[in-house]
Amino acid sequence: MKSAELVTFPARPAESFPADGRRLLIYVVYDPRGDVEEYISFALRHLREHCERIVTVVNGALTDLGRGRLEAVADDVIVRPNEGYDIWGYKCGLDAVGESIAEFDEVVIANDTWFGPIQPFGPLFERMDGRPLHFWGMTDHVRVEPHPFTNSGYLPYHLQSYWVAVRRGMFLSEEWRAYWRDLPEMNSYSDAVVKHEGVFTEHFTDLGFVGEVAYPTLTDKVENHAVLYAEQLLEAGCPTLKRRPFFQWASYLDHLAVVGRWTLDTVERLGYPLDLIYSDLARNVAPRTLNADAAMLEVLPEIDTGYDPDAPMRTVVVAHIFYPEMTDEILDRADTLPGGYDLVVTTPDAQRAAGIRTAIQSRPPRGSVDVRVVESNSGRDQSAFLIGCRDILLGDDYDIVVKLHSKKTPQGDYNVGRLFKQQQFSNLLNSEGYTANVLGLFQREQGLGLVFPPMVHIGYPTLGHAWWANKPGFERLRSELGVRVPVDEGSPLAPYGSMFIARPKALRRLVDHDWTYDAFEGAYDDGGLAHILERMPAYAAGEEGFHTRTIATAEYLASSYTALDYDFDQFSSTLPDTTMQQIQLLRELGPLEYGTLRDLLRVYVRSHRPHQQAKLERLLAYSDRVRGRLRRLRRRSR
Question: What is the residue-wise DSSP string for 200-260?
């Protein structure tokens, strides 16, 4: 059903919100760290002018920082075990208010799964205050049959439970008291939908209470409109933006043509501080998922369009130069930076240092120069950066650090190594105009922690495999560093090649650690410390509340995108249905063993039409015979 008013039978006398009415807010928070993100404080400050009393209920832990943030904006702070999801948090708040709920004319029960107000709350409350009703919600969901969580019956049309307001004629009723008294246990998200969100609306309308929705569904499709049509709802005046579009499975959003960047552009135009969104998401969403959902790749022009020379950024270039003959090439890249910069060069021995100093002295100075001979080349640029330049990174002298090194990739083929080096240098420091635009990103986004090129894929089997043997060690180091940002299931979002531009503060969690050169012995083996650290910066920055962007030139994407487009088209041509469905099929199948014909054929058995099944089953039987022969041959050769 698509309607602003729900069907009610039998009807009860409804009521408007009185001009001198008093409103109670019960707001449920869940923060895995217990810190309480700043977007919550922002929302509650703006709700204060519409609510006489604010009761916050925290499901789970609450740190001193989190308590301080809530006490600054709420009248009551209740901490309870993280049980029963937000629904039992609502019940806890209602129980705490008790009989004093009669002092109010409306109670709003809301949770922290939204950002806002994107649009002002005032017009919303003014419009809904005048409506004769018993309860109202911010957004709704259409009826679904069969029920998606039980596969039987139906999911009723309902108001979404992240925001429901109830008038006194309903919350003082025996039916209301009985509902919350008899609330069933909820041990899963499915329980929360099946036992509360999906039934609350129908339960009370069947009892004759009148309910309405402030921003009804925009189509008749069975979709979560608050998630998939967020941009359109904001344009319609909705003050809340659900967080889910920015941690939803990116392939699903791609399937439905949901572009998170367009939503964020709308948010920025409407005046909401984007840093509140990015800070929360950086700490709580896997970086590659966020990079995809919010489209956080910046394709920058070669003409300066975004740098403010009146607000220069104090910049230091830290370059580890193992190959002195690359000194001029590295300095040519650094010289694209706007204004002056200080230069710190690390190198493993005095002979190299002398050659580097000679090359530097032949060039006009752009700032101070410091050539350091590091104690050991174990860990190469990684150890030189984290140990040899620790004093610089922990100091407060610079706004920006540019990390470079002399890259030759001697272990790879010539073309592959040349492309990788070009991919790194060009996408970081390509021209004066381009590099000015890179620093302009940091000027405009105070929460931007670091930028680096997209994951290299031409010449490298990185797609889907870029963890290689490094994920177990990454998980251990992540725990040791206290990084709780979720880990990407596929390839991590990382500066492959270990070159990036960053705020030193975003790297603080990495730099604070007491590294030693001994720890870097064998660091460049697969699973070694250097490769683990290569994958860590975006996660460490996210824990500090700094978000990450990938950056690229249009020239690079001309080759990168077309190669990726072609390769992916070739891959997808072997499978039926849409990209999302192909991924679901392969996930259901599970990881394929390299070179296993039977596993590949199983994909086709599951995916092709029934009339092809018999032929494919014969192929499977043949593959079994071939595999048996190969096993016998291997045994004979031992």
Answer: HHHHHHHTT--EEEEE--SSSSSS-HHHHTHHHHHHTT---EESGGGTS-HHHHHHTT--H
Residue-level pLDDT at 4: 46
Nearest residue to 408 via CA among 394, 398, 397, 422:
422
Predicted pLDDT at 238: 98
Alpha carbons 399 and 312: distance in angstroms, whole number: 9
pLDDT at 575: 79
Per the document, the length of the chain is 638
151 CB contacts (<8 Å, ≥6 apart)? Answer: none
* Stretch (H or E) spanning 372: strand 369-373
Q: Between vectors from CA 115 to CA 204 and to CA 155, what angle results, nearest 5°?
A: 30
Q: Rounded distance, CA 94 to CA 96, Å?
A: 5
Q: Residue 12 has what pLDDT?
A: 84
**For residues 290-319, b (16+ Cβ closer than 10 Å) or e, as one string?**
bbbbbbbeeebebebebbeeeeebebbbbb
Beta bridge mates, 491: none
What pLDDT shows up at residue 1? 38
**Between vectors from CA 107 to CA 100 and to CA 109, what angle results, nearest 5°?**
120
Residue 481, class by beta-carbon neighbours within 10 Å (0-12 exposed, 13-18 middle, 19+ buried)? middle
Predicted local confidence at residue 605, as pLDDT: 58
66, amino acid identity: G
Q: What is the CA radius of gyration of the chain?
A: 29
Give the distance between the most distant pair of CA atoms in the chain: 92
Asked whether the CA dihedral 513, 518, 523, 528 is positive or negative, the reply is: negative
Gap between the Cα atoms of 40 and 37, Å rounded = 6
Q: What is the pLDDT of residue 11?
A: 72
User: Which stretches in the chain have pLDDT values below 50?
Assistant: 1-5, 7-8, 637-638
pLDDT, residue 574, reads: 79
The pLDDT assigned to 522 comes to 82
Distance CA 157, CA 5 (A): 11
The pTM assigned to this predicted structure is 0.91
- Which region holds residue 408: left if phi is over 0, alpha if psi is between -120 and 50, else beta? alpha
Token output for 517: 């050169």
Q: What is the dihedral of CA 484, 489, 493, 495, to 10 degrees?
A: 100
- What is the pLDDT, as a whole number, of residue 8? 44
The region, left, alpha or beta by phi > 0 then psi within -120 to 50, assigned to residue 369 is beta
- Which is nearest to 402 in space by CA: 420, 378, 377, 427? 427
Q: What is the torsional sign of CA 339, 342, 343, 344?
A: negative
d(CA 424, CA 414): 16
The first and second tokens of residue 515, run together, are 């590294």
